[in-house]
Amino acid sequence: MEAAVTVAIALLLTWPVRARLWALATTVPPRYALFSVASLVILLAGHMISRGAATYPLTAWDMYTVSNPADPQFIDYIAALSSGREERLLMGRLFPAGGRHFRARVDSAAFAVERSQPGQNRQAIDHLDTMLAAVARSYNAQHHAQSVRVIRLWVGTVPAQKYRGPASISRRLLYEYQAR
């Protein structure tokens, strides 16, 4: 689907200058044109065979892990809705202006709860609860048919040196917020 949309956009954008592009293409000697097209096809075929679009296009995973051998972590926000269905919460959609900044702050607060000592983490938990309450309110305002009951924060760890696709990512529950 993504490839079809990309091709359609490329055709739409080049349509007004198609005559000039065709004139340019006919001036290229056939052996150079064949070499260029064959190189591109081989490159894309190699990518599709090796990793697909699930990781990074046209590069090897090792390119991203050699300089930093630590296993990167991220937080997934999963809401349990009043209908019983679970849905991944995307901060960029819930907060179109500043969603990336807000997500970074929530991530920081979540990791602060994880690092704090038991019994001394009440302030960190209250801070995280305040932000998750805002997330729940925003979701509920945008989706009137169902509301958030619970938000679960899952920490995903990507095994940098032994990455074998999305199935190799481990997940553990970090925190569970009960919406009011």
- What is the mean predicted local confidence, pLDDT? 84
Total number of domains: 2
The number of helical segments is 7
Helicity range of the residues? 40-55%
Q: Which range does the strand content fall in? A: 15-25%
- Structural class of the helices, strands and pairings? alpha+beta
Biggest pleated-sheet summary: 4 strands, antiparallel
Strand arrangement within the widest β-sheet reads: 2-1-3-4
Shape category: elongated
Plain-language structure description:
The chain contains 7 helices and 4 strands. Helix 6 (99-115) runs antiparallel to helix 7 (122-142). Strand 1 (73-81) and strand 2 (86-88) form a beta hairpin. It is elongated, with a radius of gyration of 23 Å. The chain is 50% helix and 17% strand. It has helices at 2-14, 18-27, 30-50, 62-65, 91-94, 99-115, 122-142; strands spanning 73-81, 86-88, 148-157, 170-178. The protein folds into 2 domains: 2-50; 70-178, no CATH class.
